[in-house]
Amino acid sequence: MTCGKVYNYICENLDERIDSARCRRIREHLAKCPVCRKYLQSMKTTVRLFQVLPVPPVPPSVHRDVLRSLETLRRTEGAAGPARRARTRQR
Predict the structure, then answer these.
(1) How far apart, in whole angstroms, are the C-alpha atoms of residue 23 and residue 18?
(2) C-alpha 87 chain-centroid distance
């Protein structure tokens, strides 16, 4: 497995108890790659911080803008088809 693929799938597989072929390949890669181990540790730290830090209030206008942007992105990606999404994930 390449670093790029680890980056793409690591968020989906932060729960180390998951036993799938992909998770095994990710663990094998992590055993050999210090850069990806550091990335994983960073992701775990980020998740822990989000779990313990208070959630700041979000102004309604910001909430609306984010939802509007997500809807625009969803429509744009839906129109672009799977080829564009695959290229985007590879980056």
Answers:
(1) 7
(2) 16
Q: Which residues contact 23 (CB under 8 A, 6 or more apart)?
A: 13, 16
The single residue listed with the structure tokens 């036993």 is 19
Give the HSE-up count for residue 3: Cα atoms under 13 Å, Cβ half-sphere: 9
Answer yes or no: are the C-beta atoms of 9 and 26 closer than 8 Å: yes
How much is the pTM? 0.51
Q: What are the average pLDDT values for consecutive 10-residue runs of the chain, which has 91 residues? A: 80 64 85 91 88 89 94 79 51 49
DSSP, collapsed to helix, strand or coil, labels residue 58 as: coil
